[in-house]
Request: fold
Amino acid sequence: MSDAVRDSVVIKADADTIMDVIADFDAYPVWQPEMKQVEVLSTDEDGWATQVRFHLDAKVVQSVYTLAYTYSDTSVAWRLVEGDSVRKIDGSYTLVDRGDGTTEVTYDLEVDIAMKLPGLIKRQGAKRIVDGALKGLKQRVESQG
Reply:
């Protein structure tokens, strides 16, 4: 059974600036400490990553997995292609311009870990991933502005 988590944060930047940080996979280990290594495997004709391999060390779970990405003007979504200890890591960032120089970023994540863990532990892990990603994204974007 997978666990779904959703959370949002307001970032002092426009959607394009935020999307550029989200799509800069090589920098993920800088602002997401649980990401030990990230490798872009393929890109589209515009240079946007379409498949990315991640090496994650989140204490409870260590995993290597590949995600496939799709993009729109206001969102980026991903789905699991393959993983060694996960059955699902599907999610998205959705960006909404608030009209005041800020953007609301909503992170949706659905995770299913192959390990036998209590549901509460799995949900806490998914929540920790989302919280850390949103805080790291906000700090990364706003420190570059």
Remarks:
- The longest helix spans residues 119-144.
- The beta strands are 3-11, 35-43, 49-57, 62-71, 75-83, 86-97, 103-113.
- Residues 17 and 144 are 9 Å apart (CA to CA).
